[in-house]
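Researcher: I'd like a structural prediction for the single chain below. Treat it as a standalone chain; there are no partners to consider.
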Amino acid sequence: MTTYGIDVSKDSLEIFSKTKNRDVFKKKIGNKLVPIERFLSKLEKGDILCLEDSGIYCQLISQLALQFGIKVALIDPYTLKHSIGSPKGKSDEVDAERIHEYAERFHDKLIYYGGDSSLFREIKQLYSLRNLFNKQKKGLLTVNTNNSKLVSCSVFGHEKLQTSIAHLNRQILDIEKELIRLVNQSELKRKMEIITSINGIGPITALELILTTGNFKKLNTAKKAAAYAGVCPYPNQSGTKQYKSKIHPRTDRKLKSLLYLCGLNACRHNKDYRQYRDRKLSEGKHYFLVMNNVSNKLIRTVYALIEKEQTYDFSYVQVDPRWENSEDLNSSKKI
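Model: Treating it as a single chain, here is the predicted structure.
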């Protein structure tokens, strides 16, 4: 088994590896179909390709490697950068060597790419396009609001602004309809039904969760998803000093905002979440800290339902494990 470190760019792939005899292998190929297939055809089944996750530029070699039966590990750039200390200098060859070194040292932490279906990739692209249109519409609405405060405004400009906003609204609506149609044709349909069965979580947030977590494979536990969404503050303590807990700056703030809105709806329409919120508030906790707890509870509920493959049951009552232990203890005493 040979591990290859690959630095991926738009036009080329810089490859670095070492054999069992510690002989160095270096090669540079184009980031195109024919050169990649020629390189992969010379590898063995047990070989591993380690790539710095650079987005769309990694897709071609990742998909082709899976077809050749070769494992692919995508390394987060932030993790890679902070694993090598204070690097001196930078080039494609050096980066490929550093990726190989990381793969050799932390082989037990590598997360292998499982591949996505063409339908899943299309859903992901359409959802990104919807977010882009929403961002553009928000900017136009801000301009429209500011123009309404002006003493005088161009009639022609106002008409064009309203036309653009209406056009974006139609485009967003069409994309959402197409997303619903594609989801109903894919394996995501059942997961969407499970997630949206929780009062407060709508189809958009459910789709955001599925895509962000990599269909619950990339972030395979509720703890990882909560950390990624920024709804579980990390402790901030040193020696005898205890500071306020902080959220990591690399959290997904968009997902956190969606979960906050879902938490508000869940507390409004679901008595279990409302009682949970009121109990936390009665303990003297800050409101936004409590809503963080509600969002965390939502994520844990989603992962539990996905694991059990069942929808949310409003009549479900969780049995305290201490009661079960006490009953077992009493029954054993009677025997």
